[in-house]
Please model this.
Amino acid sequence: MTFSLYSFLLAGTLLCYTLGMLAGFVQIYRTSPKTSTAENWLITCGFILHLAAFGWRFWESRAFPVTNLHESLSCFSLFLAGVYLWISRTAKVSILGSFINPLTTIVMVWSLLIIQPVQPHPPSLQSFWLPVHVIFSFAGNALLAMTCGLGIMYLIQEHLIKTKRIGRLFKRLPSLNQLDQLSYTCLSVGFPFLTLGIITGSIWASLAWGSYWSWDPKETWSLITWFLYAALLHGRLNSGWRGKKAAILSIIGFVAIMFTFLGVNLLLSGLHAYTAR
Amino acid sequence: MNIITLGVNHKTAPVEIRECLAFADGAIPQALQLLKEDVGLQERMILSTCNRVEIYGTCEDAEAARDRLVEFIGSFQSLPAARFADNLYFYRDQEAVRHVFRVASSLDSMVIGEPQILGQLKEAFALASEHKATGLILNKFMHRAFSVAKAVRTRTKIASSAVSVSFAAVEMARKIFDDLSDKTVMLVGAGEMCELAARHFVNQGVKKVLVTNRTYQRARQLAEEFDGSAIEFKDFHSQLDRIDILLSSTGSPSYLIKPEHLAPALKKRKHRPIFLIDIAVPRDVDPAVNSMDGIFLYDVDDLQDVVSENIDHRKQEAERAEALVAIEVEKFLHWLESLQLTPTIKALRHMAEEISQRELEKTLAGFPDLSKKQQKKLEAMARAIVNKLLHQPITYIKERAEYGEQLPVEIIRQMYKLNEDGHCEEDES
Model:
């Protein structure tokens, strides 16, 4: 039963992510180098197990494993963990993990709840463009999730400073400027990925379905999302949108992303339907 | 042998008493000499600061030493003992060690966590050891106190947050801007507190200081002090877009800075945030500006709240520090105990007998045919060697101990590695 090794790896991943998330919560209550190292270590372990599971699934199904909702959620969670690890290593923003790892964990739980064995997939999914499209889209989504997490942190910290509540959380959260700058960095890297995701998607669509753009709900929503982020980036660059305004928009943008990614499939129907629901 | 501590501090004695009891630096060498001759302290040191006067020492009879100490202080400072006897505290052994560790870690200070006391303690110790008033025990004691203080500073957050209003302003600015080095500060008015806060900002590396005042002359003076530039008072509103931090402390009876002044400035600076610190009473800045996006306003009361929050935080951290201190006190007492004669002799014998027993067993195992009598002979020989080898060193440390010398005991312990508990020996400075 190869299926059981796969689920075993994913369960290990979820365990690591969950413990890492809890270590992050402890971080808010009482910072210490120990919990911080534990958090990092656990997420790294989870990520490695996750990568192994992903590789195993890839080898097993002979196709890039994002062919159903279970696999897609798992892949998104993998990207979230990867992007978080990369950013926490380079940017040193304290307690970012406490805001990102819960999302990673929830997506992972959902993915495990609907775990499925490998199934034969339609020929349209056996394409070189599938991994390209998916990697760009998920990297963009994960980076924009960071932007959203940082936006939430910004709004909390801004509120604490304005209302003069100088407590534990205030002390743990980074400065407003750090949050705003890092959020901008994630946006300016994430947006090109999102754009490339849409472009490669439409190239793939033209090869698979014979048309670059067919206005199915997923395509429409991804365009709406793209415009939201384009507006945010433009505002930041030219009109001095920053701080609170930018934070709110980055949260709205991520809600749109999640709707494009999941809501469209679960609520509306179209060409992008996952093979199993 | 006892370790004793006697003294007064800001909690037990008012300043009138403390200033009478304080030792001038120049008088300390003489006092150290008298502490040996008149009081009978073998090792001794004096810590005298504006918040505390304390004498640390080692002696054979703690109670007698206490009475003689009070007498000595009274005559040395020409103050009748009755005037200060009630303000004194006296600790011995465990309590004394705990007290000194707490003092060094700034847990006993007026503002918990302020680091000056450690430096003062180091100076007091240096002075005493310069005059050969310290020996094995106080040296170890003080070095241990310094390393406890260091551990408390690095392992707890006891000194991490601002406890003055002017420094709290800098701390808040850091939470908004992070890096202050490319920031511009404007002083409106020239109050003392404003100046102090501005100095903190300059120390934290702000790039530029602008000063404005109703009397331009005063503004120029102050600007020169900060290497900044002065601005005419009537023009300062037009400069608001250039500044990131504003400190205000004028005597104006009405609001000087209102939302309508800040709105155009914000627009001009592309909504980069401005941090306003209003130290004036009555206030200079309309509180309504705090609800503008990108404007952060703190008045004196707000900063005071930050300070008291930070002091609370230090108190919480102090509890963790106390736990650290308690562990270190135990360790130090353990070392002190080891200096006593009887346990050392016991440990030495135990070690030697163990070696001889082991060797004997090995040898006997090689000769299975030996008779009982022959075995007994060999055993007796081994025992005799051990006893004869140990006789001289044991007599020696016993003799020296009668003269109150602990060093030979310590040397024996180190030579034979008799300290089972290794971390008693690690030392940091």
